[in-house]
Amino acid sequence: MDEKSNKLLLALVMLFLFAVIVLQYVCPGTECQLLRLQAFSSPMPDPYRSEDESSARFVPRYNFSRGDLLRKVDFDIKGDDLIVFLHIQKTGGTTFGRHLVRNIQLEQPCECRVGQKKCTCHRPGKRETWLFSRFSTGWSCGLHADWT
């Protein structure tokens, strides 16, 4: 009987571990709808609830006006205007910089050669560069070096 109870205990422990793994797969975050027992606990106020009582996923730290966010900037690629793209680590800057030289629609798009990281972004009809970034001019002291 002792051996039977050990096997039963082992089976229960294995079943419990399996249930925990499945629960972690179904609810990987800290907020799991399956584990909420609203009837037994008092509801906690949501600190990210907006003024109109709708749930807000993003809480802004800076209060920019709509005009600030939707402002239009006249960039004259044929004139003397220049874009300097500052790469900040771990912010998606590499992806954005790549899109800036490869996918932007201009009169004269940047010329990117296969196998090279740098692209040439000249102004229409001139040999001047309108974009200063990692993918147009490169960094002489490395991408994440101080004071780039």
**Radius of gyration, CA atoms, in whole angstroms:** 28 Å
**Count of individual helical segments:** 3
Q: What is the tally of beta strands?
A: 4
The helix-and-strand class reads: mainly alpha
- Summarize the amount of helix as a percent range: 25-40%
- Mean pLDDT metric: 77
β content, as a range? 5-15%
The outline comes out as elongated
Which blocks of ≥5 consecutive residues have pLDDT under 50?
none
Descriptors:
148 residues; mainly alpha; two-stranded parallel sheet; two-stranded antiparallel ribbon; 3 helices; elongated
Verbal overview:
This protein is mostly helical. It has a domain of 74 residues. The protein has three helices and four strands. The strands form two sheets. A two-stranded parallel sheet has the order 1-4. The protein has a two-stranded antiparallel ribbon with strand order 2-3. The chain is elongated and about 90 Å long. It is found in: Membrane. Belongs to the sulfotransferase 6 family. It catalyses: alpha-D-glucosaminyl-[heparan sulfate](n) + 3'-phosphoadenylyl sulfate = 6-sulfo-alpha-D-glucosaminyl-[heparan sulfate](n) + adenosine 3',5'-bisphosphate + H(+). InterPro entries: Heparan_SO4-6-sulfoTrfase, P-loop_NTPase, Sulfotransferase. One of its GO terms (cellular component) is membrane.
